[in-house]
Protein: Pilus assembly protein
Organism: Cellulomonas wangleii
Amino acid sequence: MEIRRRIARAQQSGDRGASAIEWVIITGVLVALAAAVGLTLYNRITEEADAIDIPGAPGSGGGNPGGGDGP
């Protein structure tokens, strides 16, 4: 009898909130948004960091490889 009562109550309650699939969709959208923001930030920071020129730094493509002011 308890099971029948619970089933009847569940069928009569109507919409009591978001279903599991709705939560999955909402979570997926939020994860995609966070990934897009993170990727955008990463790319902008990487571009700015690559634009910094430090003379004599390894891989800078210029300057004196031995350091100092050069001959």
Remarks:
- The longest helix spans residues 20-51.
- The chain is about 60% helix and 0% strand.
- The radius of gyration is 30 Å.
- The CA atoms of residues 23 and 29 lie 10 Å apart.
